[in-house]
Amino acid sequence: MTKPSARKGGKKEEPYLKVKNAAYIWTFIGINIAVFLCLLISKVLTEASIDHFWHRVTMKDGILAAGVPILAIVLAGVFGDTGKARLVFWRWSNPLPGCRVFSQLIKTDPRIDVPALKGRLGEFPSEPHAQNAQWFKLYKKHGTALRVLEAHRLYLLTRDMAAMAAIFAVVFTVGMLLATSDYKLDGIYAAVLVLQFILVASAARNYGNRFALNVLSEESHI
């Protein structure tokens, strides 16, 4: 799943999708900051305290609200595309689903007409880089198809959220340990942050796989 080229949407498409995702990313960051401040300052997690700090974070003329979009840009750039893919797919080498879409993932999707696809493409590549290269050629043809576009948007959204969740799990846990002496609360909070990362990364993995498979589905039913 190499970055798209400028043709057929290409590099114009990914920034467009990221703009559509911006409000969701800001909300995700805002909620995490509000909960962190609530535990750090109030030492309790109640609806009233969360609501108080949420309003502090999202106050239109407040410095926190003004800083969230900037923070979103910084956090999204901490990991490169490969680093984010490793966090999502839990693979160090060839983490992108395009690297195994023909050898593994294709078997999991009954929508794909495999004989028709083989008749169109010939024998499927087996080497990871070759699989990704073949998949990318197909993506350039079908990148603007509605199913592909929406799966791509959701993958980018949850991939960035997973990277941010990993950062929050480390930074907020350390912040709580340094600022408080309630190790029970700190431990529970750290566990919740790790669980948040696992859930978001799992969602991103599923969306990424669906993104790759949607491209093959489009090609198999031309």
Which tags fit this structure?
74% helix, elongated, mainly alpha
Please describe the topology of this protein.
Blueprint: H1 10-42, H2 47-58, H3 63-78, H4 81-89, H5 114-121, H6 128-142, H7 146-179, H8 183-220
Polypeptide structure, described:
Helix 1 packs across helix 2, helix 1 (10-42) runs parallel beside helix 7 and helix 6 crosses helix 8 (183-220). The protein has one domain (7-20, 79-220). It is built from 8 helices and no strands. The longest helix is centred in the last third of the chain and has 38 residues, at 183-220. Mean pLDDT is 86; it is low at 2-9. It is elongated. The chain has helices spanning 10-42, 47-58, 63-78, 81-89, 114-121, 128-142, 146-179, 183-220. It has 222 residues and is mostly helical.
Quick structural summary:
Helices cover 74% and strands 0% of the residues.
- What's the tally of helices? 8
Shape by Cα distribution: elongated
- What is the helix/strand order? HHHHHHHH
Mean pLDDT score:
86
Strand content: under 5%
Major β-sheet profile: none
